Structures are given as C-alpha cells and as structure tokens.
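Much of what follows relies on a compact textual record of a protein's fold. The record below shows the convention in full:
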Amino acid sequence: MYKFLFFIFALFAFTIVPAQQKMKNYNNIIKSHNIYELDAFLRDAHPDDPRRSVLKPRLMDLLADYIKKAHPDDQRVADMQGKLAMLKRRPSTKISFDEMNEIIRQKQIRYYQEQLAKAQRELANPTPRTIVKKTTVPTPERETTPKRSSIFTKKSSSSTSSATEIKSVTNKSSSVAVNYENPEQAEFEMLMNPSAEEHKNKTVKVLNSLFDNDPTSKDTTVLIENLSDCDMIMRIEGTGYTKYRLAVPAKGQNTIVILKGQYLFSSLVCGAQYASQKTVSKAIMVSLGNPPK
C-alpha cells in the first residue's frame, strides 16, 4: 500500500516540476539591476507584492540613467523613454488588450491622416501619374499574443477556419519569393495604384470608420498585415454580390472598410492558399506570414 502511494506521489511530482520550471523564477529579483528583468517582474508580479515598492523606483532610476548616458543614435532610447513615462503613471509597463487595440487604432489614424493630406496635395497640384509598385504602411507595435493556427493548404486544395478577432499565421522561413511568379501581380499593381481621387475617397472612408465608436454602425475596418515575402491580394466574400479586394504588399499592411457580417477570407500567399471564415462584428486584424516549406 505504501509503495503504491509513493508511486502516485512520485508520478504527481514529476508532472508538476516541469510546469513549475516553465514559470519565471523571481527568487533573486531583489538583487537584480537588469532593466528587462525588473520590467518583466513588475508586469508579472501580484499587485500587492511588497517587492514592488523597492523595485519600481529602482527600475525608474535605471531607465533614467540609461537615457542620460545613451549614445544619440541608440535605437533603444525611445523604448526606454516610453517605459519610464508609463511607470510614472502606473504600476508597470503592462498594457491591456483594449489599450493595445487603441494604440493600433491611433497609429492607423495618424497614417491615414498623412495619406489624406498627400492625396489633397496631389489633387491640388496634379502631375503625370506614375506607377508605384509597392507602398508600405508602418507596422504597429503589439505586445498581445494572437492565436496561431496553420491554415495554409496546397494550391489545389481548400481549407477554412473561423476567427473572431485576430488570426495570425507566421513562419520564419525567408527568401520564399526568390523564384515565385505571382499570377495575381498585374491585378495587385492595378489595385495598388488608384487615382488621386480614389485614394482620397478611400482614405476619408477609413478615417471616418476609425473615428466612429458607434456600436450600431454597419461598417467596420479590417487591417491585413502581410509578413510574407510576396505581394498578395486578400479577397473578402460575403453573401450575394458583397465582395472586396485588398492589395497588401510584402512586409506591409493595408486597411479596408467593409460591412459587418459573415465572410470568407482567401488569399494566395507565395503560392499557398489561405482561406478562413470569419464573423466580422467589429474591427479585426489578420496577420499572414510565409507558408511552411
């Protein structure tokens, strides 16, 4: 009987230990003077952890000291300044999902305000139209961890998967587009080069939707982020004749305003077929990367 109980206890212990090892060990954090370790602790620790009263001021001093001594070209200064500003207002640099969505929305608003001003200048001072093969949109920083699922299939097959807010498919493979001839390239170039008037109208529409906080609105925005090495067209098909096309350059992103509803999202990404059914009831973001080799 005792041997049996000992066996059960040992089995339980071996099951628990690996899970505990995956957790961050902050036993010696009180001795740390590492900015990133202290920042991680403040984000993870319980709000009532007494070590916060010592480690938060230490982290703020370290950040201020780093900024003061940093080289003028140090790319990390902006990040350190952002952390310091947040720590002056709150317990840690941790931000909620809703806050991150708002950050993304504000960056989109600034980008499209710049695009609107550019379109208005072009309309006021028309010049011979030139074809620009690619334009990219600044990628918003995100600290949330989106759900990930592999929903790529070979070109000859089809696959669907549902998503409500964020669907992300990423892969670290590179140079996928070296020998890839995109059969949709001509259509992509056409969609990427609207007239100045068309560009202005689309920009105004996107901005109006981004500023609209009315939950009863019939429209919403869809942000497509293309992390792959290939240009792509996202096709969004609803019921009847409701169809949208959005060209998204490699390593770039683009936004479109659509009616809320049920849609089939599909795209050809570096030769692989992406397909996913989505219920779009609010602004969503879809992020696609290189397909598996």
Notes: Confidence is low (pLDDT under 50) at residues 4-23, 131-174. The chain is about 40% helix and 20% strand. The first strand starts at residue 152 and ends at 153. Strands lie at 152-153, 166-169, 219-226, 232-237, 243-248, 252-259, 261-269, 272-280, 284-288.
